From TrEMBL:
Residues 27-184 form the Dienelactone hydrolase domain. GO terms for molecular function: hydrolase activity. GO terms for cellular component: cytosol. Its main location: cytoplasm. It holds the Pfam family DLH. It is found in: Cytoplasm, Cytosol. It comes from Pavo cristatus (Indian peafowl). Belongs to the dienelactone hydrolase family. This is Carboxymethylenebutenolidase homolog. InterPro entries: AB_hydrolase_fold (IPR029058), CMBL (IPR042946), Dienelactn_hydro (IPR002925).
């Protein structure tokens, strides 16, 4: 159980975690619940550093502290996350084995768990970088997700990228060298991305 708390970002690597790990079919996940009953849940999609990274577990605990059943599944399905010692020239190969557009099956498993085991009625999703791309993909495909937030992640080369099924908020860094301003400042015919630049 978690209550809202303040956190010293200078001590993140030693963060102890308030939640626990569960096995859901073929997926491991980190779950934290608020200290009171709720039927609202948030799926957190990790970045390239994976579901065990202390920063992502802190975010799960923080969201739970604000009243949501919060879960971060291992969307890499046991494959190694990116490590700070890996070389960037290998990143394209790593991404082929960790495709953020191939998360549908795992998302369905987690949605079923949240509905059947946690009594969740409204489920949102948030993702960071790699996870932001996965959020964008899922918000185009899965109507069970009530809302989404994509931080530093976007599907760039798709004609369908504006066909979001439910509200989705995109947050980017104005000086982020990996996503140019013209890639996020787009508008479609009758729809636009809600965008916030830091």
């Amino acid at each position: 159980m978690a209550d809202p708390f303040l956190y010293n970002t200078g001590e993140r690597s030693g963060y102890g975690c308030l939640g626990h790990e569960v096995q859901i079919e073929h997926i491991k996940a980190y779950v934290c619940r608020p200290s009171y009953f709720t039927d609202k849940a948030v799926i957190v999609i990790h970045d390239i550093f994976g579901w065990m990274f202390p920063d992502i577990r802190y975010i799960v605990d923080l969201i739970a502290g604000h009243g949501y059943i919060t879960i971060c599944p291992d969307f890499f399905k046991g494959k190694d996350p990116w490590k700070t010692t890996d070389h960037w020239h290998d990143f394209a190969d790593w991404m082929e084995e960790h495709d953020p557009m191939k998360v549908d099956r795992e998302a369905d498993v987690v949605l079923k768990y949240l509905k059947e085991q946690c009594d969740a009625k409204k489920i949102g999703i948030v993702g960071f970088s790699w996870g932001g791309m996965a959020v964008h993909h899922l918000m185009l495909k899965n109507p069970q997700l009530s809302a989404g937030v994509s931080l530093y992640g976007i599907i760039r080369d798709s004609e369908e990228r504006y066909n979001l099924l439910n509200p989705t908020f995109f947050i980017f860094g104005e000086k982020d060298h990996t996503i140019s301003y013209d890639q996020v400042g787009c508008t479609g015919n009758d729809f636009y991305f809600p965008i916030f630049l830091l």
